[in-house]
Amino acid sequence: MLNRLLYTCAASALALGVASPALAQTALAATPAPTASSEDSNDDIVVTAQGRSQLLANVPLAVSAVTAQSLSLSGANDIRQLSQLAPSLLVSSTGNEANGSPRIRGIGTVGDNPGLESSVAVFIDGVYRSRAGIGLNELGEIDRVEVLRGPQGTLGGRNASAGVINIFSKKPSFTFGGNAEATYGNYDFYRLAGAINVPLTETIAARVDAVYVNRKGFYNDTTNNTDVNDRNRYFVRGQILYQPSADFSFRLIGDYTHRKEKCCAATYVGSTVNPYIGNLNTPATPLTSGLPNGNNIINVLTGLGQPLASFNQGYSRNITVTPGRSFGGTTTDGGISGEVNWSLGGGINLTSITAYRDYKNDQGSDTDYSAVDILYRAADGGSSRQFKTFTQELRLNGEAFDGKLDWLVGGFFANEDLTVHDNLKFGNQYGRFATCRIISGGGLAGFYSPTSPGCFAPSGAATIGGASGLSGPDVLAGFTLLDSLNNLGSTDDVYRQNSVNFAAFTHNIIHITDTLNVTLGGRYTHERKKFDATFGNNNNVCTQLQARLTDDITNPLTTATGRALAGSLVGLGCQGNSTAELNGVSINSQRSESRFSGTAIVSWKPIDHLLLYASYARGYKAGGFNLDRSALKAPITATGTTTFAAAGGAQSLVGNLQFAPETVNAYELGAKYSTGPFSLSLAAFRQQFSNFQLNTFNGTVFLVQSINGCSSSLAGGDRDLSAATGVCPAGDVGYGVLSQGVEAEASLVPIRNVRVNLGFTYQSSKYRNDLVGSSSGAALDPALRKLPGDNLSNAPEIVVTSSFAWTPRIGNGGLSGLFYIDSRLSGDYNTGSDLFPQKEQDGFALFNARVGLRGKDEQWAIEFWGQNIFNQDYAQVAFNSPFQAGAGSAPFTDPQYPGGRQIFSQFLAEPRTYGVTLRGKF
User: Fold this and answer.
1) What is the chain's Cα-based Rg?
2) What is the Cα–Cα distance from 128 to 121, expressed in whole angstroms?
3) Is the Cβ–Cβ distance between 384 and 330 less than 8 Å?
C-alpha cells in the first residue's frame, strides 16, 4: 500500500505541478486583488508565532501559515477544512460537532468527553477557546491562520502539547469598503456572507462581518422523514478599532454564533467497507450452533426491528433511527474581547488581551444508531455542555544591550466554569434487547423468542430455573425485571467544574552574532480544578436486580449457570452505573498541579536566504476529571459487590474520575530557504509523550487512561485479557507515545500568475511496545490490548498536499480567470482509539477545484467550485456500536476479532459537493 501511495503522490505532484496552499506560503487569491509581491514572491508573509511580528522565513519553528486567499480558494470555512491545506494537521468530529478533535503530527485528543482538553490549542484573535470543537464554525473573513506544529508550551500555554492553531480575523481599517458573496450548491446549500468597514473618525474605525448558512443533511432518515448532518447557522462579528497614534491601538471585538442543526448520524461498518468485518454482521444460523458462522447480536437486532440490509449497506447514507428519536440540537457561542497594543517608549511594547466567552451546546441523539430503541438522549435541552471562560493575558517585549537581546515577559490568567447536563436513558426496547442478548448467546439459545416475555419461550422457564440451581427463582424473577427496563435512566446528571489557572512566562531571543541566535523561553503554570456532580436517575430496576441477585453472583452453593446468569442480569440492568441508588447523590473533589514548560532554540543563517535551527521544547496538557459516572466503578466489582453502598459510597470512589497531566519532550531540526519565487522548509522531529491522555469507548463505557511505557519487559501482560497482569515497577515507567518524522513544504511561482505548492509529512506516531495505564505502572485496560507497538489512531504515516493556482489576465479590460485545484493524499490509518482492525481506513485522496471569471480589480467574480470532486467515500471515525456485542466462546482471542462479537458503526465524511459563488466588493 505504501509503494502504491508513493507512486500516486509522485504522479499527483507531476500532474498538479506540486503544491499545498497550507504550506507556509500562500496560494494566489480570489480576493482581494493580488499585488505583484504576493504573486511573484514568498518573502512577504508575516506571522506572530513567537509573540512578535516576524517574517515567516526567519522564524525557527515549524509553522504553516494559511492566508485568507488560500482558504477561499480551497473553500475552507472552519478549522476542520484546514486538513486539506496542512499536511501535518487532521481534524475530525464524532458524535457531536462540539467534540471536534484536531491532531498535529498524529497527536490529538479524542473529543467525546468535555473533561478532557485538547492537545492542540485553538486561539481566535489571541483568545484561547476552551475546546477545539468550538472552532468548528464559520469564521467570517479572516486575515490568516497559523498552524504551529509541535509543543508550544512557552507562549501557547497548557493544552498545547501537540501544537497550536492561531486564527486571525480581518481587522477594521481606515478605508471605507465592503464585500459580499452568495453561494448556492447541491444539497440545497445556501451561504450568504458579507462585511462592511467604516472609518467613523480619523481615529476610530468599525467593521461588521456576517455569515448565514443553510443546507440539507447528508444523511437520510426515512423513519422520521428528515435529514441529518444539516447546516442551519449564522455568525456575526462586530469590531471597533481605536488608534489615536502609531503608538497606541485598542481593538474591541464582539461575536455571536447560533446553530440549530441535527448532528451526528452513523451507519454500520459492513464487510464491503472493511473486510475484517468478516461474518460479524451475519445472523447466527442456527442460533444454537455455538455461533461459528454468524453473530447472535444480529439475530437480536433484526428480531426487534433492525433491517438486515442495514448491516452491509456500504457507504449508503440512509440511516436507521427509532421513530421519534432526534439528533436535533442548538449551539450558541458568544464573547467579547479587548486588545491593547501600546508602545511605551524606549522600544518597550505592551500587549493586553482581555476576553469573556460563553459557549453552550445541547444535542439529542439516537445513541445506539439503530432502529431498535436501546439508548437515547432526548433533544429537549437536557443533554448539554456550557463553558463560561474569562481570560487575561499581558505581554511586555522590547530590546536590550543595543539590540542583542529581544526579550518578552508575560502573564496569563483564566477562570473557566464548565457545566454538563446529561439525560442518557435506556430506550423503550432496552429490556427486551438485554434479555435477548443473554438468551441468544449461550446454552439457552434454543428457547430464544424475541416476542415472548424475558425473550424465552414459555417452555424454557423450567429449564432456566433448573439450570440455575438454588438461584433459579431469583434468576427467573431477574429476567422479568430486566425485561421491564424501558425508558429509565438519567433524569438530569449535572457535572460542574471550575478551573482557575495562572502562568508567568518569558521568551527571549539572544543575537549572538548577526547570523546566530539563541532563543530561551520558559513558563510556569499553576492550575486548580474543583469538581462536583449531582445525579438524577430513576432506574429502580437496577436496584431491584441488585437486591434480588447480588448474593447469587458469588454463591458457591448454586450452579455456575446460576452465578453467570445473575451476573449478566445485574450487569445489563445497571450498565454504566445507571441506578436509582445515585438519585440525588452528590460527589465532589478537587486537584491542583504546577508545571514548567519551555523551549531552547539555536538558529543560524549561513547565507541570507537560508535558516538552520535546532530546538528543544517541553509541553504540558492539564490533568482533570472524567465527567462520566460509569468510571466510578464497574457494575459488579472484582469482589462481587454491586451497590455503591457496599463499595463505600460514591464519594469514596471519586478518585477514579481523575487523570494525570500529559507532558511531552520534543526535539526538532529544521531548515528554511526562501528567495524570490521559491521557498522550501524542512523539519525533522521527535516527540516523547508521558501520561498520554486516551479516551476510548469500549462499546459499553468510556475509558480514560494515562498511557505510559515500561522500560522492563511486561512479557505480553499488556496484550492479554487480564486487568491484573502487565504491572510495571514505578521506577521503570517512562514515556508511552513516540511521534517522529519529517516534514517538507515548498512553494514556487514559476511564471507570473501561476503558483504551485507541495506539502509532505512522514510521521511515525506509535505506542511503545510495553504499555501501562498510569504513571504508577498500573496495568493497561484489556480493551486497549491492541495498542502496544502500534500506530496511534488517525495518524497516517504519509500525507501529501498539493495545489495549483493560475489566474491569467484576459484581454486588456482588467478581466482575469481563475483555475485552481488542490489535493490531500493520505496513507492508511486506524480511526478507532482501541485500534481494532474493523476500524481501519484505507489510504485515499481528496481533491477540490475551482474555476472562475473576475472583473477589473476583482470588483466582482463568479466561481464554480467542487469539494471532494471525485466523491471519495471514507469514514472519519469508526466505533463500537453501543451495547451491540454478541457472544462468543473465546472473546478477544481471534486476531481478526479482538473485540469478540462486537459490531461497529462509523461517522462518514462529507460526500461530493459543488456549486457556484458570486462575489462583489466596493
Assistant:
1) 29
2) 7
3) no
